[in-house]
Design goal:
With 246 residues, this protein is an all-alpha fold. The protein has helices spanning 3-17, 23-29, 35-60, 66-80, 87-98, 103-108, 114-129, 132-137, 145-159, 169-192, 196-224. It has one domain: Up-down Bundle (Heme Oxygenase, Chain A), CATH 1.20.910.10. The protein has eleven helices and no strands. This is Pyrroloquinoline-quinone synthase.
Length: 246
């Protein structure tokens, strides 16, 4: 494939498989979840946020080109910050604080859905074990992030009186960070995926990452929306407990 054909194929994968199409997001953005369900989403999504710099550190350790390392290490800074209470992870914790979740519970991970934990760890393993080209290609879901971020912020502010603009500050920074990161990764993939085998591999990597994000929402929907069966040990808000529906 030419570079243009490869890019078109990657964008088609996102259009078909990105998790903005998941029913859970339609409920979240449309104001059709209760506070407990929104809490469950934020708590479980924290695990994914926490693992992003771990994933990027694993990728960084494999890069021998200093110039590429300098670019990629910014992703870790964006999430970890340069100090306490800075960076994307700190901003996500301010969201869970605003939703009334105990910070120790969120950070401990003990109330996670099993599928959330498995999906986040699978992403780290993928980046560690696959080729550097595939690892970088797996980040290309960021190509599609600005649309879902805009929908999420607008929808949540319009529909939930327990959510404020300050609580959603994480997404403000991602509106400019995600396109920058995605454009760099896309350019890298288009320049380095030269053979058909490499091109098929980067497309498979993007499909895998879409599956990671989709599977986390599947788990949330099953546990907290329908049929509302959180597994043992998972976060159990009163509004979502099976007993509350009895």
């Amino acid at each position: 494939m030419s570079a243009a054909e490869l890019e078109a194929r990657l964008r088609a994968i996102g259009a078909e498989r990105y998790h903005d199409r998941h029913p859970f997001h339609a409920l979240l953005h449309g104001g059709r979840l209760d506070r407990g369900q929104v809490q469950a989403w934020a708590l479980n999504r924290y695990e994914y946020q926490r693992c992003i710099p771990l994933k990027d550190a694993a990728l960084l350790a494999r890069i021998e080109d200093p110039q590429l390392r300098r670019v990629w290490r910014q992703r870790i800074v964006d999430h970890d910050g340069d100090g306490p209470d800075e960076g994307g992870i700190a901003r996500w914790l301010r969201l869970t604080d605003a939703l009334g979740l105990d910070r120790e519970l969120v950070e401990s991970g003990r109330a996670l859905l099993p599928a959330t934990r498995f999906a986040a760890q699978a992403y780290i393993r993928f980046v560690r074990e696959r080729s550097l080209l595939e690892a970088i290609a797996s980040s290309l879901t960021e190509l599609f992030a600005p649309t879902i971020i805009g929908q999420r912020v607008a929808g949540m502010l319009a529909n939930y009186d327990f959510v404020s603009k300050q609580a959603l500050a994480y997404f403000d920074s991602r509106l400019h960070q995600a396109p920058q990161d995605a454009n760099f990764a896309l350019d890298y993939v288009l320049r380095h995926a030269r053979t058909r085998e490499q091109q098929d591999a980067v497309c498979a990597a993007l499909r895998f990452k879409c599956d990671v994000l989709w599977s986390m929402l599947d788990a949330l929907h099953f546990a907290y929306v329908e049929p509302r069966l959180p597994p043992p040990g998972a976060f159990l808000p009163q509004a979502c407990s099976p007993e509350s529906d009895a």
